[in-house]
Specification:
Strand content: 25-35%
Structural class: alpha+beta
CATH topology of the largest domain: Fructose-1,6-Bisphosphatase, Chain A, domain 1
Radius of gyration: 18 Å
Oligomer: single chain
CATH architecture of the largest domain: 2-Layer Sandwich
Order of helices and strands: HEEHEHEHEEEEEEHEHEHEEH
Largest sheet: 7 strands, mixed
Number of domains: 2
Distance between the termini: 50 Å
Length: about 280
């Protein structure tokens, strides 16, 4: 397995007392759970519909259960998982303080269809803001992680800010929109300002691939907190700029469901944000 530790002992500039050893333990725990609970079930288990219409599989439930135990052993705080009852999710959120926020299998539709593009997303939260984010891609065997104020890494190698600017016309965009943004969808379909559009089916990996320079732009109509908590931190710590459709501060406002406008560099972000907001319907 590739190295998982950032260099040094204490994390310089970190906004919390997180150490390299603690971060490394979390990354190893998430990788181990993904290997034990997700990979053996890939292309062997069927999905069913939840009450909200989304998919869930045996792998989602087993992974969440294993993560609750593994993460609780490292930091015994409250646990919020996507597959928990909604009332329990809100109870953890309303209590605030430090807690784990987990999407045990981001990209369940891909997983259940046999598409090898999905991830495990884990964040250690302080209130509404992540202190630590870890995203593991078990198929590519990649682990992305970040600590607020201390940087982002992929498999122990730092993810630096982009060294080269691309123009909006050259950019590769990850886009996932809803019917409520029909006008934006129409403009992107018929008059896209970028070179190429992707819709991958895993928001956690979309954030990480933005951080790693595999995407230049990201636009999403709305993500739950477990979808963005780890990935947005990783992208931001790698130099990406982000906001919501209406708010300049991505981390401000209601945390439960956030839209996304993001780009690999601040200069590209300014162009992308202005284009998207210019196409939005009036409030």
């Amino acid at each position: 397995m590739p190295p998982t530790d950032p260099p040094g002992g204490a994390l310089p500039g970190a906004a919390s007392p997180l150490t390299v050893e603690f971060t490394s333990r979390v990354v190893r725990a998430v990788r181990a759970v993904a290997s034990a609970e997700i990979l053996p079930r890939f292309r062997t288990v069927a999905a069913r519909r939840k009450a909200d219409g989304s998919l869930v599989t045996e792998a989602d439930l087993a992974t969440q259960h294993a993560l609750a135990a593994a993460l609780g052993a490292l930091e015994p705080v409250a646990f919020l998982g996507e597959e928990m009852p909604e009332a329990e999710q809100h109870r953890v959120r309303e209590a605030g303080g430090r807690h784990w926020c987990v999407d045990p299998l981001d990209g369940t539709a891909n997983f259940s269809a046999g598409v090898p593009y999905f991830a495990v997303s884990v964040a250690l939260m302080e209130g509404t803001r992540p202190l630590l984010g870890v995203v593991v891609d078990p198929i590519a065997d990649e682990a992305y992680f970040a600590v607020r104020g201390a940087g982002a890494w992929r498999d122990g190698f730092a993810l630096p800010p982009a060294s080269r600017e691309v123009t909006l016309a050259e950019a590769v965009a990850e886009v996932d929109l809803r019917r409520s943004l029909a006008h934006v969808r129409h403009e992107i379909k018929h008059r896209p300002p970028f070179a190429k559009r992707l819709t991958s089916g895993s928001t956690a990996l979309a954030w990480c691939h933005l951080a790693a320079g595999r995407r230049d732009l990201f636009l999403h109509a709305g993500q739950k907190i477990w979808d963005y908590a780890a990935g947005a931190l990783i992208a931001e710590e790698a130099g990406a700029a982000l906001c919501t459709l209406r708010e300049d501060d991505f981390w401000a406002g209601p945390a439960w469901d956030r839209s996304v406008i993001a780009a690999r560099t601040p200069a590209l972000f300014s162009q992308w944000r202005d284009w998207v907001r210019a196409t939005l319907p009036p409030r």
